[in-house]
Amino acid sequence: TQRIDWHKSARAERVMIRENEWEAANTLWFHAGASAGMTYHSHLSKTTKRERAQLLCLALGELSLRGHERVGALGSPYLPSHSRGGLQRIAEWWQADGQPDTLPVPARVSKNAAVVLISDFLDPLETTQRWLAELAERPFGTLMLIVLVVGFVGYAAWRVARAINGEGGEEPSA
User: Fold this and answer.
1) Contact in structure between 65 and 160 (CB atoms under 8 Å)
2) Taking Cα atoms as reference points, which of 50, 53, 51 lies closest to residue 116?
């Protein structure tokens, strides 16, 4: 009798059973590249690629919070949060250079989470390959956004393709 929808049953000629779906919030984990290449900025702007990547992460995090999702940062000492305060802590952690220059190991990421990677992926090729292989073995989804400088688009695309395919070899000359 607890599952009977009495209001709808009163209007209808038959008994209506209430069906509830269980909704679980997803968790999005963000990583803004922290390699030396991410400190590059154009002579036209003082904003580095790393700062742009962090801003993209924060913007995606804000949109995720509006969708009632949890957000966290890989390598962060903070747990994922449903609040803007959690996003603020991530931003402050990034501003204080809390993010290590090494690629983080996603130890606390649950199987129903998603990881968003925003970087130029120009770390040493073997390091990037190992990291992407480790991420591929995990049961969560991964989205990669690549921050590039226009002059290096072909080179960076070659590097990422090699890392994803697990291929080594000589790098093309600039």
Assistant:
1) no
2) 53
Amino acid in position 118: I
Q: Which of 112, 89, 116 lies closest to 104 in space, CA to CA?
A: 116
Which of 51-70 are b and which e, b meaning 16 or more Cβ less than 10 Å from the residue's Cβ? bbbbebbbebbeebbeeebb
Q: State the pTM of this model.
A: 0.71
CA–CA distance, 13 with 23 (Å, rounded to integer): 30
CB 99 within 8 A of CB 75: yes
Q: What is the pLDDT of residues 14-44, one digit of tens each?
A: 888 887 766 667 899 998 888 887 888 878 8
CA dist 154 and 172 (Å) reads: 10
The radius of gyration of the chain's CA atoms, rounded to the nearest angstrom, is 22
Give all strands (DSSP E) within 2-86, no chain letters: 27-32, 70-73
Q: How far out from the chain centre does Cα 34 lie?
A: 14
**pLDDT tens digits, 88-104:** 999 999 988 767 667 78
